[in-house]
Amino acid sequence: MTSHETAAPQPAALTPLTRPPRLRPGARVAVVAPSGPVPEERLEAGLDVLRGWDLDPVVGRHVLDVHPEFGYLAGTDADRVADFQRAWCDPAIDAVVCARGGYGVQRMVDLLDWDALRAAGPKVFLGFSDITALHEAFATRMGLVTLHGPMAAGIDFIKNTRSQEHLKSTLFAPETVRTTARGRVLVPGRATGVTLGGCLSLLVSDLGTPWARPSARGGVLFLEDVGEEAYRLDRYLTQLLRAGWFDGVAAIVLGSWKDCGPRAEVDALFTDRLAPLGVPVVTDFGMGHCEGAVTVAFGMRAELRADAADTADPADGAGAEGAGVTLTLEEPALV
Fold first, then answer.
1. CATH fold of 177-329, please?
2. Catalytic residue among 135, 224, 228, 256
3. Would you say residue 24 has pLDDT above 90?
4. Which of 29, 62, 179, 296 is most buried by a 10 A CB count?
5. Sorting pLDDT into bands at 50, 70 and 90, what band is 324?
6. Which residues in 279-310 are b (16+ Cβ under 10 Å) and which e?
7. 8 A C-beta contact, residue 302 and residue 193
């Protein structure tokens, strides 16, 4: 730094967000499609799961639409916005659940009436993958805890008992899932911070937008992705490092990396890019694009314990799942 330069002010550390009410039998749950097209048969199967939990699902008018020009979108931006806005602002709706990810949230997130959403009050919001952009928006624009977990038309939501039970417990009895023990240690240590994160490529895509977080300072940061080769993961992580986004992060929890290349290479990359931060780093936590994914609440103060005895060797992927790795929320995710 030259003599005439002054250091930029450091962003404030993250603070816990407002917790929405838990669900109870008979609660009405809106299902929306803010991203990609939804297969009808999988949607119907997901609705059956919700009904089996004694919930009353309400399907958005445009959930099964496909954009007339861009087949990767579930209907037009305006229609996806209308479904989401209508669901969130309806006082009879207790939760908004995304049908699937794909791509599309970034096209519609700034079209939402955030003043109206804030006025409608807190409620449960659930999704992952492309929905990361909405998790970030709910955190920065509404200060609301959200749930990163299986979506209504997703395979885990429909067929995986472990994912179903973890999500159901989070929704109805959140005090029973305050501690999750999964993962392998890449860098040992213990840390406390506020949970945030999601899909790595989406977090990078959010950089520079008006409502993006300036950094993950004070956060227990969850990262995962799918179908990204190691050099692309390297590029994303390096961009976040160069942008100072990791400055002050308390800990990093890595989820699934399906179809992202050889495991040893991916682990070595994480060690190379993240270990110099000097904070605990855990991998294989089992959130995101993987079978049996757990539900993670974002915006909660949590403690990560990653004991050195279970440190993984990136060269061979060794390590006992869940041994010595625990994440404990300071309080239940929902009130």
1. Glucose Oxidase; domain 1 (3.50.30)
2. 224
3. yes
4. 296
5. confident
6. bbbbbbbbbbbbeebbbbbbbbbbbbbbeeeb
7. yes
Q: Are 282 and 252 in contact (CB under 8 A)?
A: yes
Both tokens assigned to 221: 């940061």
Domain ranges in the chain are: 28-173, 177-329
* Chain mean position to CA 291: 16
Report the distance separating Cα 253 and Cα 180, nearest Å: 12
Q: Which CATH superfamily is domain 28-173 in?
A: Murein tetrapeptidase LD-carboxypeptidase, N-terminal domain (3.40.50.10740)
Q: Between the CA of residue 184 and those of 47, 304, 329, what are the distances in Å?
A: 34, 12, 19
Whether 224 is catalytic = yes
CB 134 within 8 A of CB 109: yes
Task: Please report where in the chains the tokens 């087949």 appear, as a residue.
Answer: 71
- The upper half-sphere exposure of residue 326, i.e. CA atoms within 13 Å in the direction of its Cβ, equals 8
301-306/325-329 β-pairing: antiparallel
Identify which of 207, 198, 187 has the alpha carbon closest to the alpha carbon of residue 306.
187
Span 72-121, pLDDT tens digits: 999 999 999 999 999 999 999 999 999 999 999 999 999 999 999 999 99
- CA torsion sign for 44, 49, 52, 54 is negative
148 catalytic? Reply is no
The catalytic position among 62, 67, 135, 289 is 289
For 111, the token pair is 């079209």
The string of pLDDT tens digits covering residues 163-210 is 999 999 999 999 999 999 999 999 999 999 999 999 999 999 999 999
35 is catalytic: no
From the candidates 129, 201, 215, 256, which is the catalytic residue?
A: 129
